[in-house]
Structures are given as C-alpha cells and as structure tokens.
Amino acid sequence: MVVLATLGSGISSPDETRSVWLLQQEAEKAGITQLGYTLGLKKLLRQKLVELTVENDERGDTYKAAILTDAGWRWIEENESKFVLRKPPKGDKKELDDDIPF
C-alpha cells in the first residue's frame, strides 16, 4: 500500500505519470526496502491498479513511468480511510522544553 500511496501523493492530476526511479526513491524514504518496493509494484501491476509506460524527458531520453489506472483510483477511493489526506496543523508541534540549555 505504501507504493500505491507514494504514487498517488506524488502526482497533481489523476492522469499524470511518475518516474519509477523517483517512485522507488520516495518509497525507500518512507521506510520500504528495494525488495519491498519491487514486490509492491509487482502486486499493483498484477492487480491492474498501476500500469507502466515509457515516457520522454525534455531532452528526448526515455524512462519508465507508473500511472494509476481507473481501478487503482477506485481502490483508493473505496479505501480512503486507510490514507492520510490531511497534514496536521503547523501549531500542533509539541512545545519546546525551556529547561534545555541549548
């Protein structure tokens, strides 16, 4: 589910793609191992929640990208409660302890 959430949160419109390299980097930052990422992507592909495409960058070089399918977006909508959709307000941080001298 982390790979799915990482893909969904890294795009700004439903038809946007995301580089699989960048997707992997972001999933690893979220605590997923490379194997965990690859396994997650494989499951999403098998379930047809994600598709892989080949895109061109601004220089004309090609790269693999992932895109959420309609089924993927439907799954996210049906399981919306499993995802974090709001950032906590900025004022919710714990107050600093003034007794610490540094």
Offer a quick outline of the entry.
The protein is α+β, with helices and mostly antiparallel strands. It contains four helices and three strands; from the N terminus they run αβααββα. It has one domain (2-80): Orthogonal Bundle (Arc Repressor Mutant, subunit A), CATH 1.10.10.
- Overall number of domains: 1
* First-residue to last-residue Cα separation: 40 Å
Which strand order do you get reading across the main beta sheet? 1-3-2
Shape from CA axes?
globular
- Give the helix level as a range of percent: 25-40%
**Residue-averaged pLDDT:** 85
SS-based class: alpha+beta
Q: In sequence order, what are the helices and strands, one letter per element? A: HEHHEEH
Number of helices, counting only DSSP H or I runs of 4 residues or more = 4
Low-confidence stretches: none
Structural write-up:
The protein is an alpha+beta fold and 102 residues long. It has one domain: Winged helix-like DNA-binding domain superfamily/Winged helix DNA-binding domain (Arc Repressor Mutant, subunit A), CATH 1.10.10.10. The chain contains 4 helices and 3 strands. The chain has a 3-stranded antiparallel beta sheet with strand order 1-3-2. β2 and β3 form a beta hairpin. It is globular, with a radius of gyration of 17 Å. The termini are far apart.
